[in-house]
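Table 4 source record.
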Amino acid sequence: MPKTTSIALMQETKSIRDIDIKDKRVLIRVDFNVPMDKDFNISDDTRMREALPTINYCIDAEAKNIVLVSHLGRPKGRTADFSLKHVLKRLERLLNKDVAFADTIESAKMQQDSGIKQIILLENIRFYDGETKNDEELSKKLANLCDIYVNDAFGTSHRAHSSTYGITKFVEQKVAGILLKKEIDSFAKVIKNPLRPLLLIVGGSKVSSKLSLLQRVLDVVDKIIIGGAMSNTFLKALGYDMQKSLVEDDLIADAIKILEIAKEKKVKIYLPVDIVSTNDINNPKDIKITPSQDIPDSFIAVDIGPASVKLFSEVIADSQTIIWNGPLGVYEIHQFSRGTFNLAHAIANTYAFSFIGGGDTADAIDKAGQRDNMSFISTGGGASLELLEGNILPAFQVLDKK
């Protein structure tokens, strides 16, 4: 679990509010990696709306011009499907301002040099191969667009890419945006001096992605609920036959070790006592609810059952601080969403401070209609997981400190 010194160090990062940006060229690394349907309609613009306070602050503080840099998806070369042109209209509507579009970094520079005070959205930064390789030449080109670099993309702050890390080497002033500061301050509230009992809920598909997290949190949390496909490995470690369910057999020994250490440290771990399973996830003609040890032959676990929901809800009701990372079932399919949604309702009904770790968890909270009833929903699943594991995010390492 994060050492408070690591969190304190990240909290010492300078903010855009700590410097003078009047008449300066500002480049903001935003996170406009928003979900879209096949017709490029944005289904959730939360990440864009979260960037507005920083952009509007730069406008109000009379920045000379503002360049917005983001990625969208994981494109293989330049492809229209991943163009940030698809977010341009929504951005203009949210800002209530015209926004210029630049196909290339060179085009953005030309628009800057025109002397017109404007906001410029740069085309998908991942169209450049060098972005994910933290290429020095690309970093220099981006740095050439600004006097001040602002990172406001928490969702990508755990990656040392050119636009989140390399650029800072060539810019004199590099600071955190308002969202980035809000994310780390909210996380500090959960970790530094939490109200107890402190409950961690972990779900998702893989133990491997959260193994180090589970090992580290045992010194800090009071209770852990494990659900989703992650729990299958733990249930198999207890000797249950999980049939065709997703299980990481090579991690069963690690699961047993975690259960043993938790017992020694008096950390209570709760696993599903009943399971919703089906013969076929994509074409579920037969769905059963059974005790965890009685999954029917050749069936696949897809959600926690009603008895587990009741048990977990009681654990939630008795907690003062709740951290949740990862859904507890295949919530994207209506029949298998009840477990995750019911836990969202249970958290919403508490007075606990609830920190929701981005990604699929945030999406599930939205689908459950409980976004407004959570204390804080992070914009970055992977980044919030890195924080939970005690790592200082690369993006924070290279920004100016107070």
